[in-house]
Amino acid sequence: MEPEPELSPHHAYPDHWEADVVLRDGGTARIRPITTDDAERLVSFYEQVSDESKYYRFFAPYPRLSDRDVHRFTHHDYVDRVGLAVTIGGEFIGTVRFDRINGRGRPASAPADEAEVAFLVQDAHQGRGVASALLEHIAAVARERGIRRFAAEVLPANNKMIKVFRDAGYTQRRSFEDGSVHLTLDLEPTEKSLAVQRGREQRAEARSVQRLLAPGSVAVIGTGRTPGGVGRTVLRNLLAAGFTGRTYAVNRAFDEGPATLDGVPAHRSLGEIDERVDLAVIAVPAHRVPEAVADCGEHGVQGLVVLSAGYAERGSAGRELQRELVRQARSYGMRIIGPNAFGIINTAESVRLNASLAPESPARGRIGLFTQSGAIGIALLSGLHRRGAGLSSFISAGNRADVSGNDFLQYSFEDPDTDVALLYLESLGNPRKFTRLARRTAALKPVVVVKGARHSGTNPPGHAVPVSRIPDATVSALMRQAGVIRVDTVTEMVDAGLLLAGQPLPAGPRVAILGNSESLGLLTYDACLAEGLRPRPPIDLTTAASPQDFKDALAEALADGSCDAVVVTAIPWVGENGEAETGDGEVLAAALHGAAAGSPAKPVAVVHVEIGGLAEALAAASSTAAPRTRPTTLAAQPSGASGAPTPTETAPQGAGEAEGGEPPVRPGRIPAYPAAERAVRAMAEAVKYAQWRRQAATPGKVPEFLDETTDEPGAAALIDTLLGPTPDPRGRTLAHDEARELLGRYGIPVRPTLPAPDPGAAVAAAARLGYPVALKTTAPHLRHRADLGGVRLDLADEDALRRAYGEFTELLGKPAELLPVVQSMAPRGVDTVVRASIDAAAGAVLSFGLAGAPSELLGDTGHRLVPVTDRDAAELIRSIKAAPVLFGWRGSAPVDTPALEELLLRLSRLVDDHPEVVSVALEPVVVAPHGLTVLGASVRLAPPPPRGDLGPRRLPNY
Q: At what angle do helices 490-502 and 374-386 cross, to 10 degrees?
């Protein structure tokens, strides 16, 4: 039971400091401020701390806390004196406290910016990362309260505490004074501290999922006494899969005394079981779930799979039940899959866990599968089984109230049994974190995603997560930037997953096509062109081709250095009696396997039409495929400016990626497809992914010239002035001159415009700017609409200007409605649009496209997450379909794309440095053969949204 928050006369109880965290061993704990109601908890906690730990904390024997100590350690003003506690089951397992001090080490108030900090962790929980998590959170609290440095005195023998400070990644200084080590930590986050924090997060969250998927014992709570029902079905599936651990059936309706059910011990509660249970599968009605969770928590269960329905999918009342379920489970240190889950599967030989409603456990394989939908999970399991594909793990998270796709990525990243991660997602609770994790995982192994609920603008029932307003096309572009293979359907996901799990990555887009059907070869050729591949003319082996002919042709194609991949097409061949022979698929499969096994490692896909047994024979080796060769792991490095993967873990190389490296082991599985388009689409995704991997191995950079030509302090001061001492939460749009000044601080000049409320003012403005000039309306309904007459260009003299002004007012309205302005002409070029905006969930996004209705109507706009690197900027301008216009399309002069890339980098840097800049639109940006001109700019400022990805680790609370 959490204490009631205390309202301090100095400062209200800071409930935003409360957080659930995952500890090093995968268990959860709660961090919260200490209040005056915690006296008994503090005394009980201290009694359980060893004398040695007490000595390290107080530098002297200190067997018990005095009443004065208890009062001091539980009374805080949450400004100059702050205490945080880590709790499990409502009881303290660790504490931290800071007191603000002045330069002489005496108690002080603001503006003093240093504090003395001290930790104490219960001995039974040392080694779980409690102190490290507390340091992250107390440092964030200190920064919020204006404290920039921590000072700590540590005894030299207290190696564990010294290591906590040393490994945190903050800039620090150490000295030895009066028999103790004096440590000073600068609390400003650094690249190293952020990398340390994210590394700990990854290991902890991966471990939390691993504990769920590899338990030593499982209890099914709600197992019925008669066959049928959800609980009895899960118990049956556990036993049928051959689970290697201990299994228990639990139901409070069982008779007292020893009993068995389906050959396993049956108990009325977990308290009757002689050992601690690792995983509990809960299959009771929703109103009985809290009782079951409490039973689990009180008896040390590590994780829960909640199959019970009746939560957020039922509306607001159910959503509150779901939140309470998560709070209750986390208070005991447990993570949840569900509620409304389908279950989990782990095919590892040492586990063989099928704690799901799937009647048959899939074969063992190299694909990890996560789905937020039970129905989609059933379909995917069935589809993979039909095509002979095996799985390493499966999680169907239901309402994903706790364990999410992000956690699955953390687990998949380091799971040696998973080569490909497939995810069906209907909501992204933390898109910013998802793209970061996906980028890191994709640098090591493919990540294939299908996103459901793409166009509804809302989350599916049961998914109580923030709704992102980013268009689906933008989400897709950001996933591509992170190396995610985004496909539209679950069929395409299975198609891509089979190829990526069974075949090496292609070294390029050159595809050889061979087969015994000219027509099917031509269809494959056309599909390759449509997908942007470079197919060679199809090789027609004729309908008389034998399996040996296929083997020889495939071996020759794989040995040919001018191709990177092969698509084999096959139809039933005609026998001597003139009838089609469809039953020799096994013979053809053996021939293709034989050719592939003795040839250079290149991906092979097969398109077949009604050849009996072929797909099954090609997939025969899927469950025993050897893992691909993994390269040496390099030393960990912090992420690059764009979050691009650095050599923390080097990904397995595709064919041709590394010279002199050991070629990857070729698994025996060759994927087969019933249509050429499906095989080619999967191959195209593999080609694009392999290209991303090669590029990601050398991350882009932010050019140094940006540091020399930007005025970050000046821009910050200007933003503070423009927002004022009490900023409007809704923000404000800057006037033209204000926007010009701010953008100018980052080397982005905007061509000046002068108001022209009447013809005389227009002539005066033109005289000041110099002819030729442009006359434009700034009325919202006509802005940038030359097609409606809202822009007149190349006005060479006063007469032309006055004549244009008269036509303006005659055709479009009064000057007060049109708000005309005059601007000097820019060099001719291509009109483009550059924008930056901040989404509360995904973060800052940089966008680029050509100006005009066609691009807007067709959605031809590229997007990248901020901050962008030089490589990101170059890829962004080339990502749109109309990009050839920039590079000399149909004989036009190529424009200055390096200048355009520099503009993108400068705007990215501005938005990244100053989160108060929530929206920027540069329109139009005229890119000429030499240089560019920004003709219009709109900038909006607002108090910055919170950046959860830069704060201390915490589990989301939806």
A: 50
